Amino acid sequence: MKIAVLGTGTVGRTLAAGLAAAGHEVTVGTRNVATTLSRTAGDPMGNPPFAEWRRQHQGIGVESLAEAAAGAQMVVNALRGAGALAGLEAAGEGNLSGKVLVDVADPLDFSHGMPPSLTVSNTDSLGEQIQRRFPGTRVVKALNTVNAGLMVDPGGLHGGDHTVFVSGDDATAKAQVVALLESLGWTDIIDLGDITTARGTEMYLALWVRLFGVLDTPAFSIKVVR
Amino acid sequence: MKIAVLGTGTVGRTLAAGLAAAGHEVTVGTRNVATTLSRTAGDPMGNPPFAEWRRQHQGIGVESLAEAAAGAQMVVNALRGAGALAGLEAAGEGNLSGKVLVDVADPLDFSHGMPPSLTVSNTDSLGEQIQRRFPGTRVVKALNTVNAGLMVDPGGLHGGDHTVFVSGDDATAKAQVVALLESLGWTDIIDLGDITTARGTEMYLALWVRLFGVLDTPAFSIKVVR
């Protein structure tokens, strides 16, 4: 499948590489290709410059957000939560229309210090905001409960025996995302319901950030025991 | 240990019975003892009248909120989240002072329909509200991530291999609560940190209520896989 991964940070890079390794034709979308490729310094998260990562993943295309979205069958929102709506605007409503958008972003708000709070929660969610803004796109919230490494390699933790969730209004779109998740090695996938259930997985982040604080690793997940 | 369980609903009854079975001297606290004992109809959750439950648990005392708190070494807040602060006011700041208060309540807001949202979240929590209002009490948030049955019988699900959390400012108080949890059969107990980390477990309820919707049972929990 032709997949556009929007975002060049840790999540975007890791998802792009993981999806390419799983056999998909992947293009990374970024606001300005020339600017992104010209950076010579690493990012604040300790990642090397994008161009260096790109040299190690030459099968993965790099295009503008709009070009990447236009050419893809499925789009992954791996933009930072705070910039997601603006980035998707740049990708273009027409380029996203009719497509499945896998929203893996969390609306983390770092402006009040650590650990982050959420920019939207309780009676709304980022997933819903995106679905409302792009009604012709079929938004499926998924993978936002684990770090980038586990998103594409769930088997790397406890043999993959932990849970991932999907939320979305369109059953066919969710089935496509479930198949994608299975191709990455996920085995325990819970369909929570419509896109309003994204509130559940996004608000779980309030627990995630505190577990990250005490576990000293982001490579953890939860198993729903039932 | 002499424990007061404040609240006569499902959570209060189940905790009182479970703690009594574990060998503690338990008193249930209620706003008006005569009123509570005189009810002849079951409650909206399908529970029998309190007096009927009481006949089956004659070793458990029933007193006013203030009397129960005054006579206890440890107090458990099993009041509904929406009524918790008012109930604790009735218990009396002096009667709670210096004591460990185990707060198992979640600030669920049913006023906007189902599933419930939260009356407080993101930048505050019920646990913090209680700690601020009763600064002389040592509040420990715990057990609020599972239903009443699992609170006192974690071993009844998957051999007890799932996780419970504690949050609180006082290390000694948390150690006492951890010991209490261990006496109930909990084995995987994560100390999240100070009382602000109650935001994490309370906001997890947004995921819990949606899992309840799709799993068709409240008898589930999460295991933090790491």
Structure characterization notes:
2 copies of one chain form a homodimer. In chain A, strands 3-2-1-4-5-8-9-10 form an 8-stranded mixed beta sheet, sandwiched between helices. A two-stranded antiparallel ribbon of chain A has the order 6-7. The first copy, chain A, contains 10 helices and 11 strands. Chain A has a single domain (2-215), classed as NAD(P)-binding Rossmann-like Domain (Rossmann fold). Chain A is globular and about 45 Å long. In chain A, helix 1 (10-21) links the parallel strand 1 and strand 2 (25-30). The first copy, chain A, has helices at residues 10-21, 33-38, 50-55, 65-71, 84-91, 93-96, 126-133, 148-152, 171-183, 198-215, and strands at 2-6, 25-30, 61-64, 74-77, 100-103, 108-109, 117-118, 138-142, 163-168, 188-193, 221-225. Chain A is an alpha/beta fold and 226 residues long. In chain A, helix 4 (65-71) crosses helix 5 (84-91). The A-B interface holds A 112, 117-118, 121-123, 157-158, 161-162, 165, 190-193, 197, 199-201, 203-204, 206-211, 213-215, 217, 219-226 and B 112, 117-118, 121-123, 157-158, 161-162, 165, 190-193, 197, 199-201, 203-204, 206-211, 213-215, 217, 219-226.
Name the average pLDDT of chain A.
Answer: 96
Task: Please state the structural category of chain A.
Answer: alpha/beta
CATH architecture of chain A: 3-Layer(aba) Sandwich
Low-confidence stretches of chain A: none
Tally of structural domains of chain A: 1
Descriptors:
22% strand, 226 residues, alpha/beta, 38% helix, homodimer, two-stranded antiparallel sheet, 10 helices, Rossmann fold, eight-stranded mixed β-sheet, globular
